Amino acid sequence: MQADPARWGCRSRRQFGLYPAKLVMERKKARAAEENVRLICDDALTEVFRRLPARTLASCRLVCKSWMSVLLDPHFIHEHLSRGQQKLLLFANDRVNDKALAMVLADEKESMYQLSRPMASQSMFVHNSCNGIMCLGDNTGAVELLNPTTGESLVLPMPMYTAGSSQFSSCNWHCLGFCPGTKEHKVVHFYQGTHIDSSQVCCEVYTIGARAWRQVGNFYGAPTDRGVHVNGTVYYLTKFRYVASSRINCLNLESEKFSSMMLPPRKSYGGHCSLAELEGKLCLLVVDGAVEDPPRTMEILMLDSDDNQRWTLQYSLSLPWLMPSCYFTPKHTLFHEGKIWVQLLARGLYCYDPSSKSEEMKIAWTEFDFPFSTHTFIESIVPLHKDYFMKL
Prior knowledge:
alpha+beta, Neuraminidase, four-stranded antiparallel sheet, 5 helices, 15% helix, F-box-assoc_interact_dom, F-box-like_dom_sf, F-box domain-containing protein
């Protein structure tokens, strides 16, 4: 007995393929229109998100899953990061109150906000900052990553080799960097080898989202100072006792391969040298002069991004005379708001304006009651946990 489709409901009509073609076309158009409206809403929402500060976006991630999916998209995260406004971060260890005190000096209102200590150590310091993530360490060699904007933190496994660490140690230090090609953040740990040759430096790498450190080899040339990260490469300066044998060692974070470059030729290196990142480029700071013959000068040579052998003298400025016995290399030299900020000793922050006619540095902030370290910082929503990372 053959079934009569007319006696069946819509479901039977669909099974027998007896829906009128006109009705099918109308439903397809309705679905397409609904999809277009959804896409327009998503585009409008994304455009609104682009205009919001990172601190607001950190709260927006908790509203619903659709908002979270947009705000955790790697393309959106790094596009929003590129629009972020750089700030100046002063980080200090407040041992009296048993907490680490971090103050971010806002660019417009010069406001400050305090960050609570994420680690249990009483001796915490900042290795460096990259894309809004702070790489923190303590005197045991432990490493923790912190995004102050989102409040996320990530304790890394203890490195394979550590004999304790110090913010003043040049032979045992960590550096957080970012690979533009792979969109990965990596922490590099340099430490001195156990061989008789003390100039051998070993290296291990931790990729955020992984579970363990990886050995990537070793290189000759003990660092004279902590290294810097510039555009996917970590640089550090080797011992400077003999200029002819000194060089800059480089670790490419994407290939995880070592290379080296010679120091730029010049008549004299006089005092001390250190590396810094200014305006997105690697710079060599050369301090000339002596304690008995102030004032001393600091020249800033900038490496050409297209030619790793060509250095250009970018700035020349006079260092203030502080005390007769003061002989130092300026630390934490930063480029911020079109000015050069130099931290002298542990409590003094000075500023140099390249647009001014004077080469003198002026004190930028009254001396604090506690020692601090200076860093550049950008608020971001870069996630730290593995579950948040999406493959491109």
